[in-house]
């Protein structure tokens, strides 16, 4: 992996730093295999762990063999398995312990219903606790489907995360984000600043979710802005013949193409040509503190 290099917390001049992250670490062994390969042989610097997902244990075992892979918590509060049993959070999950996919309805319930918020806080703490139990260093926190754009979810993460050493979060701020989303992004940014939580200046991966192939990465790197950027993706090893999608909501994702992009020599060369240094959140911001 390229040395993270020096990167002030809010770089000026021509400094460019990149955090290249794989989400959904632990969701499936194919995802875990891709993360390991993309880090060992490609440009991947970080991964976000779903602690309640079916292959989480395998992901942790792989992460322990990869001392330079920075691992964070991918808090999952929608369209995913919960950490706590249904009896402890009945207002959040179905009988199988799975969160629903109607984030608008759930967001309203999180905001207005105190008993739902209490259960939400319980589940968020349980996921932080499960990550702590892995013994891995917490590099960052983000959420499945960017649910921390919701003010209640963000408040609970900021409150609970302090107890577990959270120092960095993803700011889901992409250049061509729709206008209706920008006020929410600005609110998250302001709250992270007030809380003293490190965060990226911009993100790449929302518009092309599931399709972060080589050409998308090359186009991104050709017009890379200054500052701290996070490129996130969803790589997975190719499926066996006849195997279905990893999840129903990922039926159109091109996981193998994303893995190929992370392994691409052309992408690695483009990062070097852009003068970008790579690392995890801890690398980028720890070096920035030393430089300031």
Automatic annotation (TrEMBL):
Its cofactor is Mg(2+). It comes from the Bacteria. Gene3D superfamilies: Glycoside hydrolase/deacetylase. InterPro entries: Glyco_hydro/deAcase_b/a-brl, Hopanoid_biosynth-assoc_HpnK, YdjC-like. Keywords: Carbohydrate metabolism, Hydrolase, Magnesium, Metal-binding. CDD domains: YdjC_HpnK_like. This is Hopanoid biosynthesis-associated protein HpnK.
């Amino acid at each position: 992996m390229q040395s993270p290099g020096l990167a002030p917390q809010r770089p000026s001049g021509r400094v460019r730093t990149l955090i290249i992250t794989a989400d959904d670490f632990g969701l499936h062994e194919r995802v875990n295999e891709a993360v390991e390969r993309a880090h060992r042989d490609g440009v991947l610097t970080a991964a976000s762990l779903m602690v309640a997902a079916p292959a989480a244990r395998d992901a942790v075992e792989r992460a322990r063999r990869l001392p330079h892979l920075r691992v964070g918590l991918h808090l999952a509060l929608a369209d995913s398995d919960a950490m706590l049993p249904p009896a402890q959070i009945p207002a959040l999950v179905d009988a199988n312990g799975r969160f629903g996919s109607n984030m608008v309805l759930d967001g309203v319930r999180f905001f207005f219903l105190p008993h739902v918020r209490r259960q939400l806080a319980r589940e968020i703490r349980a996921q932080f606790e499960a990550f702590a139990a892995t013994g891995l260093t917490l590099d960052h926190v983000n959420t499945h489907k960017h649910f921390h754009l919701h003010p209640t979810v963000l408040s609970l993460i900021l409150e609970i995360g302090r107890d577990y050493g959270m120092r960095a979060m993803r700011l889901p701020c992409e250049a061509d984000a729709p206008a209706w989303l920008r006020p929410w992004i600005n609110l998250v940014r302001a709250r992270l600043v007030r809380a003293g939580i490190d965060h990226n200046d911009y993100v790449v991966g929302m518009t092309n979710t599931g399709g972060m192939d080589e050409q998308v990465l090359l186009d991104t790197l050709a017009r890379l802005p200054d500052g701290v950027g996070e490129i996130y993706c969803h790589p997975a090893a190719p499926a066996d013949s006849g195997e279905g999608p990893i999840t129903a909501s990922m039926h159109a994702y091109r996981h193998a193409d994303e893995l190929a992009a992370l392994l691409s020599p052309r992408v690695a060369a483009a990062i070097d040509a852009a003068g970008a240094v790579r690392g995890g959140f801890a690398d980028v911001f720890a070096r920035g503190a030393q430089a300031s």
